[in-house]
Amino acid sequence: MDTSGSPVWVDRHDIRLLLEPMAPIPSTSEAGKTAANVGWDDLPADAAEVFLLGAEAIEDFHREKRRRMNEEAREARLRAMSPEPEAAAAGDEWGGSDEEPDESVVLVMQKTARMILSAPNPTQMEMKIVMDFGKKQPAFAFLGGRWRRRWETIRASTNEALQKEKARSTGLGGLADYGDTDGEESD
């Protein structure tokens, strides 16, 4: 079939004719040799457990597995947010260290604190930042519990600075100057 100069007109059901031919299917004798090398190691970890279960039992198994994973994730989040240092240190992957962050991380902390505290809903903003950057960028490890003391001091000082700035900008509540009104009223 020579298609070098003319366009190819193909019906959507005949497109399979343009595909490369498939590899030949091995005979049963060859399949028997490769089947001996296949075992449970090639399958997902759950396959051995659910092999003999019925459809309803498999659904229950997967539901229970999802529930356990969600519970473990919840416990990890609660440990990371725990205010008690001994409770956080028990599950803290950084071992409760008092290490100081680099200057670049301190700048990220300051900008993040300003962003979080100036948001209309600071908790929601913090969770959004954790979801967007928490695991992807190591500079945001302070949101997961690393450098906890430094993060708390930066957040407190930023909160104080924002409160002072807000009080200063309020001034007289929007009243600036009445000006001279003696010349306007001449009774």
TrEMBL record:
Chain residue ranges for the region called Disordered: 76-101, 159-187
Protein name: Uncharacterized protein
Source taxon at top rank: Eukaryota
